[in-house]
Amino acid sequence: MRRDVFQAIADPTRRAIIALIAFQALTPNAIAENFNTSRQAVSKHLRILTECELVKQEYQGREIYYSLELNKMKEIDKWLEQYRRIWENKFNQLDNVLSKMKKQPKK
Amino acid sequence: MRRDVFQAIADPTRRAIIALIAFQALTPNAIAENFNTSRQAVSKHLRILTECELVKQEYQGREIYYSLELNKMKEIDKWLEQYRRIWENKFNQLDNVLSKMKKQPKK
DNA sequence: TATATGCGCAACCTTTCGGTTTCGCAAGTT
DNA sequence: AACTTGCGAAACCGAAAGGTTGCGCATATA
User: Fold this and answer.
1) What is the mean pLDDT of residues B2-24?
2) Reduced DSSP (H G I as helix, E B as strand, rest coil) percent helix, strand, coil of chain B, to 5
3) How confident is the model at residue B2 (pLDDT cuts 50, 70, 90)?
4) Which domains does chain B have, with CATH numbers?
5) Which residues on chain B place their C-beta less than 8 Å from a C-beta of chain A?
6) Does pLDDT of B77 surpass 50?
């Protein structure tokens, strides 16, 4: 099950989880208390976030603290960079961008 | 059917389409030629991209040219901004970020 | 040792996604 | 007028998403 950062942040609940644990590591139960969702649902989201390495776990007794993996967030920033270059009108390597995306394999 | 920018960029084919039309407006057929996908499939993606205003149409005879709506791309950048502030260690309004996300309504 | 708690995991269900096929229509072409 | 072409829309389908419920297990607590 190949996970993708973009797919991970597509879900609004997952973005909310990301925001929650951005500054402090939290357990699944603590996270779930912040939404109208069950602990299991949060757990599933955390699994997806962990799989694509947007989130890291830290075991502490029987509790697991989840926190944000900022480096992975930079990956999104890196993708945006090419377009930021356009709207800031400094597109030096534009053909690079284009050729990289052409003839993309299906899916 | 409320569309979301984050959901729109979740699909790899849609990201490829975005990259394709970033510098030049293209018709659905022209876009489809760049992938192993049918024109109809591309058309569906364009519909989603148009719905969330990531893409704009320009009618020209019986052809429709699609091009990127850069302003909407900035919306993603804006979301990332809060986290960029963290990894650049200049989080001035961090509690602002946190409180905004708490008690989020379900979904 | 018995009980409560925190957790992941699997099974299940409904909804959505992404694709194909088929259609209808408007705009060009002959 | 007849044909071709570019397109969106609808119907259909298998796969995946996101939720719930129930389970098993390890860790704490009585």
Assistant:
1) 94
2) 55, 10, 35
3) low
4) 5-69 (1.10.10.10), 71-101 (no CATH)
5) 4, 6-7, 9-10, 12-13, 15-16, 18-20, 22-23, 34-37, 68, 70-71, 73-74, 76-77, 79-80, 82-84, 86-87, 91, 94, 97-98, 100-107
6) yes
